[in-house]
C-alpha cells in the first residue's frame, strides 16, 4: 500500500511552483538537502519520478503533473477537515451520550442539559434511560459517554464519583392514618405499592425492611415511579420512593410525604471510562454532576 505524506506533497508543490529546490527551501524554511530528501522519499513511496530538471528549472514529470492535479483538492480537503475538527473543539459541536435512570432523567437532567446547551448550543446531547447495570455496561462498552447511576457500582475501566445523596421517603394519601414514626413494622400493616423487583429502588427498599426483620407483601408492584405516584394520589396505597421523585406531586391536601425511621438514602454517582477523552461538552456534563454533591434531598 502506497502512503502519501502531506508534508512531502506540500514540498513537492512548492518546488514545482517555484521551479527551484533552493527557492522552495527558503519558502518552507528548510535546508535544501531536506527538500531534496523529502522529494526522493515521496518518489520512493509512489514508485515513480515526480520532478526532473530542465536546465536550471525543476519541472514536474508526467507523473508529477498527474499528482499536481490532485494536490489542490487534497489540500482543500485537509483544510476543510482541520476546520471541522477545530469547530468541534472551539464550539462543542460534537455529541455527548448520557445514560441514567428515569427519575434522574426527569428531575435532574433537564437543568443539567439546559446549562450545557447554553454554553454549547450546537452540541448534540442524547439521553438513554435504564437501570444501573445496563447503563454501567453501556459506558464500559463506550456505547454511552457518561452515566448517572445508583451506587454501588464498580468496574476496572471506570471512574466512579459519588455526586449526590437522595433520601427515600414515604408518600401516602393524605387521609391515611400514619404513626409518628414511619417504621418498617408500621408500613407492613398498610397497603403498599412498591417498585417492581430487579431495580435498585426495590433493592434498597427491600434491604431496609430486611434490616428490621420485617417482611412486606405489596398490594401492587410497578415498573414506573410516575405510575406509583399516580396510584398513591388515587388513594390506593402508600409507597417508598426517592425524594428526588416527589418534586411534582399533587398539592399537600392529596398526598403527604414523610421521612422513614431509620432514615434511608441512596447515593448517585457519575461513571465514565478512565481512558475517556474529556472533550468540550462531556467535561461540562461531568462538572454539572459533581455540582450535585451538595444537594442532599431530605424530608423533615
Automatic annotation (TrEMBL):
Stored CDD domains: PBP2_LTTR_substrate
Gene Ontology MF: a single term: DNA-binding transcription factor activity
Similarity field: Belongs to the LysR transcriptional regulatory family.
HTH lysR-type domain: residues covered: 4-61
Key words of the record: DNA-binding, Transcription, Transcription regulation
Gene3D superfamilies: Periplasmic binding protein-like II, Winged helix-like DNA-binding domain superfamily/Winged helix DNA-binding domain
Source organism of this protein record: Trinickia fusca
InterPro entries, per the entry: HTH-type_LysR_regulators, LysR_HTH_N, LysR_subst-bd, WH-like_DNA-bd_sf, WH_DNA-bd_sf
Keyword Zinc: no
Name of this chain's protein: LysR family transcriptional regulator
Domain of life: Bacteria
Gene Ontology cellular-component terms listed: cytosol
Amino acid at each position: 500500500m502506497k502512503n502519501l505524506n502531506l508534508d512531502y506533497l506540500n514540498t513537492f508543490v512548492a518546488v514545482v511552483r517555484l521551479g527551484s529546490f533552493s527557492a522552495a527551501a527558503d519558502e518552507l524554511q528548510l535546508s535544501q538537502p531536506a527538500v531534496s530528501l523529502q522529494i526522493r522519499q515521496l518518489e520512493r513511496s509512489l514508485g515513480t519520478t515526480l520532478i526532473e530538471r530542465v536546465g536550471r528549472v525543476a519541472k514536474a514529470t508526467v507523473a508529477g503533473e498527474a499528482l499536481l492535479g490532485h494536490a489542490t483538492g487534497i489540500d482543500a480537503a485537509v483544510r476543510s477537515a482541520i476546520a471541522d475538527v477545530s469547530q468541534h473543539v472551539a464550539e462543542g459541536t460534537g455529541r455527548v451520550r448520557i445514560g441514567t435512570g428515569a427519575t434522574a432523567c426527569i428531575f435532574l437532567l433537564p437543568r443539567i442539559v439546559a446549562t450545557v446547551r447554553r454554553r454549547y448550543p450546537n452540541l448534540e446531547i442524547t439521553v438513554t434511560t435504564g437501570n444501573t447495570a445496563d447503563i454501567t455496561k453501556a459506558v464500559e462498552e463506550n456505547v454511552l459517554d457518561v452515566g448517572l447511576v445508583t451506587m454501588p457500582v464498580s468496574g476496572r475501566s471506570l471512574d466512579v464519583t459519588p455526586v449526590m445523596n437522595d433520601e427515600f421517603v414515604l408518600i401516602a394519601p393524605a387521609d391515611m392514618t400514619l404513626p409518628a414514626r414511619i417504621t418498617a413494622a408500621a408500613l407492613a400493616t398498610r397497603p403498599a405499592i412498591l417498585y417492581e423487583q430487579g431495580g435498585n429502588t426495590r433493592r434498597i427498599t427491600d434491604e431496609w425492611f430486611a434490616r428490621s426483620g420485617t417482611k412486606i407483601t405489596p398490594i401492587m408492584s410497578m415498573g414506573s415511579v410516575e405510575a406509583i405516584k399516580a396510584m398513591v394520589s388515587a388513594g390506593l396505597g402508600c409507597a417508598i420512593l426517592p425524594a428526588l421523585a416527589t418534586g411534582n406531586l399533587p398539592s399537600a391536601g392529596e398526598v403527604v410525604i414523610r421521612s422513614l425511621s431509620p432514615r434511608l438514602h441512596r447515593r448517585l454517582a457519575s461513571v465514565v471510562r478512565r481512558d475517556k477523552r474529556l472533550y468540550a461538552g462531556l467535561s461540562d456534563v461531568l462538572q454539572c454532576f459533581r455540582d450535585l454533591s451538595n444537594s442532599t434531598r431530605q424530608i423533615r
